[in-house]
Design goal:
- Chain A: It comes from Paramormyrops kingsleyae.
- The complex is a heterodimer.
- Chain A is of the alpha+beta class.
- Chain A has a single domain, classed as Dynein light chain 2a, cytoplasmic (Beta-Lactamase, 2-Layer Sandwich), CATH 3.30.450.
- Chain A has 2 helices and 5 strands.
- A 5-stranded antiparallel beta sheet of chain A has the order 2-1-5-4-3, sandwiched between helices.
- In chain A, strand 4 and strand 5 form a beta hairpin.
- Chain A starts with a helix and ends with a strand.
- By secondary structure, chain B is α+β, with helices and mostly antiparallel strands.
- In chain B, about 25% of the residues lie in helices and about 20% in strands.
- Chain B is built from 18 helices and 37 strands.
- The radius of gyration of chain B is 78 Å and the shape is elongated.
- The longest helix of chain B has about 40 residues.
- In chain B, strand 16 and strand 17 form a beta hairpin.
- Among the domains of chain B are: about 90 residues, no CATH class; about 150 residues, no CATH class.
- In chain B, the strands form 10 sheets. Chain B has a 5-stranded mixed beta sheet, with no helix packed on it. Chain B has a 4-stranded antiparallel beta sheet with strand order 1-4-3-2.
- The chains are: A alpha+beta, B alpha+beta.
- Chains A and B meet through helix 1, strand 2, helix 2, strand 4 and strand 5 of A and helix 7 and helix 8 of B.
């Protein structure tokens, strides 16, 4: 538990990181460093995106799976790491 | 048997015919025709059967005599020809004509023609008759004889007629039927009677189905039309009426407990661990490489330089001259209005020589000098005119309140104008249709036009007293920025009011004066006594002059006078232009409307300048970071760097100005521009005589860049507001030179001729977005507005840092140069000393040889020691080795 916290803190303090959100597979946020409204918004939107991306990758090759998703926009970047049950979103 | 009958009939008729025959001979028929009866057998033999071979139409049959004779021989007396045996024998010809006589004209049904001639006659005349009739009357046409009427010859046709005609076979019977007389005219009764009751009354023929009679219809003619099958169906939907409904949702969330549970689970931990490593990779990538750096755009910046020589010239945008006022006059100063785009103010003065000025001084009163406000929207009529007491050489808008203008005159007076009353009018000139946006909406168009056609003239509202001001013409006037003010001692202190309240002027009477537009603080009694006097002093006040600066009018005094004594000599410098370090007014662009707008708001909130009081120096906090030093350009071409702080003179206890720290005689003529670069606070451009120089504050050895002498005098210089390395120099012959220090430093990168007379002032201005103007005025009174092309207004990539580096290089060069100079000077000195020594030497007695040898040994030893030291320093010799001896 503590190490988890520590790891998260480590990422948080890295340069350029604005916030972290951990979401379940259904899109319900578990942990977040941003305010509630943004968290929920991000969680909902990104969950759909990740589903889509995963399906895309899987369809091309069933053995394949999504490991990392990076969305780069003009102003910032969103990094998403999906897993079986959870996602980690870093802004 | 016909034949048998015939003879009978013929027998009957024979009698008749005998009679007739006899009659025929009487008729004229010759003897050569002999009626003959031919039996059917004979007829068959001779092929003259009745109605078969011989008909009415062709009644001729030619018989051969021999055959007749033969027949006569064979049948002897039975033969029909017996009676005519003799004639036949006598017949001359071979053939005999047998005529069928149908009509029994000769008594028998045949007759034989006995003579040749008659034969011919019978045969031929019908032919000839026919021929005659056929040919007309051509052959033998005797003259036409009218047929004579001959008695009817009955040929048996009467019988037929008789048969045909209808005659009463018996006399006609006549019957007469009549009713009984009593029944005539008796009343009659009619009754209906049903026809069907008694069968006698009618008969009917009913139709019955005749079975024997059946007709099958083989053909029928009908019309056929194809018609689509149509069906008509209807449905009805259930009509639902609209209802208002709303739903509300909330995002799903875990409760705190659940969150805790999940966070603690093993699953979660594993997940986080596995995932974090990926992130670290990504973060590293981001750190190595700046993702958001747009290479493409950065490339574009550099490329602009090489973008071809499209537009490097300053384009003429507009030019302003006023024919009434600016004839024979020159423009002395230009100022862009700080807030209103497109508005520019120009001060105009006489361009007489100094003698002319003295002689023609009477003229000035009739034709007062003016400051013109020009607007881009109206090139012919100026928007506003400011009346000046005397020719104004320099003026400036107050940065915090653009309606206040301060100007310095020829006679040493400082003038203040307040144009707040006309601010609307000036504001209205922003749009092209300035007249339409005028706030004064007059119902009567006649009045409206008149008012706007006449340019309003604003009289100055305050002027300093002649005895209090400068003794010579004021050549430079500047407002002090609103963030600080100067106390009586010359110490910059903070400005509580945040509006510009102080003005600095300089004049060739060797002093720089500081003026405050507020009334001085009430310190001494005398001032309080003087105050009522001030208000009572009668003014010739015009009604349209605002009372903003009434308190200053004619009594304005500077609160600091900075004298500029020269070092060493007792003379003083005569400053023409100056430049403060922290003066933000020096390079104003249109982009700084924000700060000035804020200030406008404050000033519009109602700062009554009359009520402002200069605060006591003790109350205000002195500002440390404001430099009190400034550069001055003098009439003799010197650049002076001095301090305005007053220091107390220990002897007399008065405040005296400090002596200037540095002075450089660089220019050959009087200095006409001292300007700070808008990008580097410590870079100053001075223009004077035939050269210009760039100075760096702090580097006191000399100018870091000094241009070569140009063939024509440089009359004015100004930095470009957007490019760090660019500045404009105006020349005596009307050329404007564009100097780009990054491109060329030995000559101008561009020269453009604008007018024939000398350029008197250059002021650039930026109208956002991206319109850069250069206002250039010349000696003939014309104001040219030029548009600065893109290549001259957009800085190249990293231009500022490049310029900074360049300046540093120059500074280094200068320092090096100075060092070299010193070194050379020192060397020279040493050389001289040595020469002196040498001169002295022959006077000394000759040394003995031993002494010389000793000296040589000493020299050698010192040399060895030096060698050791050098080798040690070079590291070739280690410390342990014994020194060579």
């Amino acid at each position: 538990m503590a190490e988890v916290e520590e790891t998260l803190k480590r990422i948080q303090t890295q340069k350029g990181v604005q916030g972290i959100i951990i979401v379940t597979a259904e899109g319900i946020p578990i942990r977040s460093t941003l305010d509630n409204a943004s968290t929920v918004q991000y969680a909902g939107l990104i969950q759909q995106l990740v589903m889509k991306a995963r399906v895309t990758v899987r369809e091309m090759d069933p053995q394949n799976d999504l490991t990392f998703l990076r969305i780069r926009s003009k102003k910032n970047e969103i990094m998403i790491a999906p897993d079986k049950d959870y996602f980690l979103i870093i802004l | 048997m016909m034949a048998s009958k015939r003879p009978k009939s013929t027998g009957d008729k024979k009698n008749d015919s005998a009679d007739s025959a006899g009659s025929s001979t009487e008729l004229g028929l010759p003897d050569d025709i002999f009626p003959l009866v031919l039996t059917s057998g004979t007829q068959e033999l001779f092929e003259c059967r009745v109605d078969k071979d011989v008909t009415r139409e062709s009644p001729y049959k030619i018989l051969r005599k021999e055959e007749i004779l033969k027949d006569m021989k064979t049948r002897a007396a039975v033969s029909d020809f017996h009676p005519i045996k003799q004639t036949v024998l006598n017949y001359p010809g071979e053939e005999l004509l047998l005529m069928f006589d149908r009509d029994f004209t000769c008594g028998q049904n045949f007759y034989l023609v006995l003579t040749e001639e008659s034969k011919k006659r019978i045969l031929e005349p019908p032919v000839s008759a026919r021929e005659d009739t056929a040919e007309g009357t051509s052959l033998d046409s005797p003259p036409c004889k009218t047929p004579e009427c001959q008695p009817w010859v009955s040929l048996g046709s009467e019988r037929e007629i008789e048969e045909e005609s209808v005659r009463d076979s018996r006399p006609r019977l006549k019957y007469r039927i009549s009713r009984v007389r009593r029944k005539f005219g008796a009343p009659v009764t009619f009754t209906d009677c049903n026809a069907q009751e008694s069968k006698d009354k009618y008969t009917e023929c009913t139709s019955y189905d005749d079975r024997k009679f059946s007709i099958e219809r083989m053909e029928i003619t009908t019309g056929v039309q194809a018609v689509p099958t149509l069906r008509s169906i209807s449905t009805q939907t259930r009509w639902t009426y609209p209802r208002n409904m709303c739903s509300q949702y909330e995002f799903r969330e875990f409760t705190e407990e659940e969150k805790e549970n999940i966070a603690n689970s093993e699953n979660f931990r594993n997940f986080v661990n596995s995932v974090v490593s990926r992130f670290e990779v990504a973060a590293q990538q981001n750190m190595i490489f700046d993702v958001f750096f747009n290479d493409w755009q950065a490339l574009h910046e550099e490329d602009g330089i090489f973008g071809g020589k499209v537009e490097t010239h300053l384009k003429e945008y507009q030019s302003f001259t006023d024919l009434h006022f600016t004839k024979e006059k020159t423009i002395s100063d230009i100022n862009w209005h700080p807030t209103i785009n497109g508005l520019i103010a120009v001060s105009v003065m006489e361009k007489l020589s100094s003698e002319g000025k003295i002689n023609g001084s009477a003229k000035l009163l009739q034709n007062p000098p003016l400051i013109f406000f020009w607007s881009f929207s109206d090139p012919i009529n100026p928007q506003l005119l400011l009346e000046c007491p005397d020719d104004v050489l320099s003026f400036q808008f107050c940065p915090s309140n653009p309606n206040i203008i301060v100007g310095g005159c020829m006679n040493g007076q400082v003038v203040l104008w307040d144009v707040s009353a006309h601010a609307d009018r000036l504001q209205g000139t922003r749009s092209a249709a300035g007249k339409a946006t005028s706030a004064n909406e007059c119902a009567l168009p006649a009045f409206q036009d008149k008012r706007e056609l006449n340019t309003p003239v604003v009289r100055y509202c305050a002027v300093s007293g002649v005895e209090n001001g400068h003794k010579a013409r004021i050549t430079d006037v500047q407002w002090l920025p609103e963030n600080f003010e100067i106390s009586k001692a010359g110490i910059p202190v903070e400005n509580k009011a945040h509006i510009c309240v102080q003005v600095i002027t300089c004049a060739p009477d060797c002093c720089v004066m500081f003026w405050d537009i507020r009334l001085p603080r009430v310190t001494t009694h005398s001032l309080t006594e003087r105050k009522p006097k001030v208000t009572e002093t009668p003014h010739l006040n015009r009604s349209d002059v605002p009372n903003t600066f009434k308190h200053l009018d004619l009594s304005w005094k500077p609160f600091i006078k900075v004298a500029l004594p020269k070092k060493g000599t007792g003379a003083e410098y005569s400053p023409l232009k100056f430049s403060l370090r922290d003066n933000i007014n020096d390079n104003q662009t249109g982009g700084s409307t924000e700060t000035s707008e804020q200030n406008l708001e404050k000033s519009e909130g109602g700062t009554e300048y009359a009520l402002l009081r200069a605060s006591s120096a003790k109350q205000l906090k002195p500002l440390e970071d404001i430099s009190t030093r400034f550069y001055i350009g003098t009439q003799d071409g010197e650049v002076v760097y001095t301090d305005w702080k007053m220091e107390k003179d220990n002897d007399s206890g008065r405040l005296l100005s400090t002596k200037p720290s540095h002075c450089f005689l660089v220019h050959d003529g009087f200095i006409n521009s001292v300007r700070r670069s808008p990008f580097f606070k410590d870079i100053i451009l001075t223009v004077g005589g035939w050269t210009f120089a760039i100075w760096k504050e702090g580097v006191m050895n000399g100018p870091i860049i000094h241009s070569s002498c140009s063939p024509k005098k440089c009359t004015v210089g100004y930095w470009s507001p957007s490019r760090p390395g660019l500045f404009f120099i105006g020349k005596e012959d009307g050329n404007v030179e564009v100097w780009d220090l990054l491109e060329k430093t030995h000559e101008a990168s561009q020269t453009q001729n604008l007018s024939t007379t000398q350029i008197t002032c250059i002021k650039p201005w930026i109208v956002p977005p991206k319109q850069h103007f250069l206002a250039v005025s010349d000696h003939s009174g014309t104001l040219h507005i030029l548009e600065v092309p893109w290549s001259l207004r957009s800085p190249s990539y990293n231009e500022k840092s490049n310029m900074a580096k360049y300046f540093e290089k120059e500074v280094d060069r200068l320092i090096f140069l100075n060092k070299r100079k010193e070194m050379r000077a020192k060397e020279k000195k040493d050389k001289e000393a040595e020469e002196q020594k040498k001169k002295m030497e022959p006077k000394m007695p000759e040394k003995l040889e031993e002494q010389i040898e000793e000296e040589n040994l000493v020299h050698y030893k010192t040399y060895l020691a030096m060698e050791k030291v050098i080798l040690k320093n070079m590291g070739l010799l280690s410390d342990e080795e014994p020194a060579l001896n």
